[in-house]
Amino acid sequence: MNKRNPKVDTYLRKAKKWREEFQKLRMVCLDCGLTEGLKWGKPCYRYQESNIVLIHGFKEYCALLFMKGVLLKDAKGILVQQTENVQAARQIRFTNVREIVGMKPILKAYIKEAIEVEKGGLEVDYKKTSEFVIPEEFQNRLDESPALKTAFAALTPGRQRGYILYFSAAKQSKTREARVEKCVQQILDGKGLND
């Protein structure tokens, strides 16, 4: 059940940064009996068919990402919300191998709790798409084009959120307008931001 996946071996061999940290995190996850694979191009660990944790690296840190981290008790106060728009996932961040080694029992406890969350069938109460503020530049285009409004309404809630967050992230109105313009055809084609 906790066998190494050759795809993850390849991923680790190619990793230029955080390789040693990734290998330590991998062993912690495998020690918890999770199934290893790649998801979104990153090492991902599952319990049955549910994604539990993902290992990923950034410029300043690497992290163990708990898919439903918001549902964990976080007894040690170490879970981080990556950005304000991330609703479910939470990270534990590392900058060196020593931190991972020192936290190994804590990491295993958090992973075991995450597995229990899955076994219990707990679900994250996501914010509804209608609760997100649609940027004025996009709302104006929706109001001008019934076809665009219909196409946007037909997208899945996740795809709608993706566009709203992408448009909202731009600080300047001119940039928001350019982003909307760039995505109009994609929305009309029924595609998400990253399809």
How can the largest sheet be summarized?
5 strands, antiparallel
**Strand adjacency order, main sheet:** 1-2-3-4-5
Task: Catalogue the unreliable spans.
Answer: none
What is the H/E order? HHEEEEEHHHHH
C-alpha end-to-end distance: 33 Å
Strand content: 5-15%
Total strands: the figure is: 5
Radius of gyration: 20 Å
Shape: elongated
Number of helices: 7
Average pLDDT, rounded to a whole number, is: 94
What proportion of the residues is helical, as a percent range? 40-55%
Give me the secondary-structure category: alpha+beta
Secondary-structure blueprint of this entry?
Layout: H1 6-14, H2 19-31, E1 35-39, E2 42-47, E3 50-57, E4 62-66, E5 90-94, H3 97-119, H4 136-144, H5 146-154, H6 157-169, H7 173-188
Antiparallel strand pairs: 1-2, 2-3, 3-4, 4-5
Helix pairs in contact: 2-3, 4-5, 6-7
Can you describe this structure?
The chain is of the alpha+beta class and 195 residues long. It is 47% helix and 15% strand. It has helices spanning 6-14, 19-31, 97-119, 136-144, 146-154, 157-169, 173-188; strands at residues 35-39, 42-47, 50-57, 62-66, 90-94. A 5-stranded antiparallel β-sheet has the order 1-2-3-4-5, covered by helices on one side. A hairpin with a 2-residue loop joins strand 2 and strand 3. The longest helix is centred in the middle third of the chain and has 23 residues, at 97-119. The radius of gyration is 20 Å and the shape is elongated. The relative contact order is 0.10. The mean pLDDT is 94.
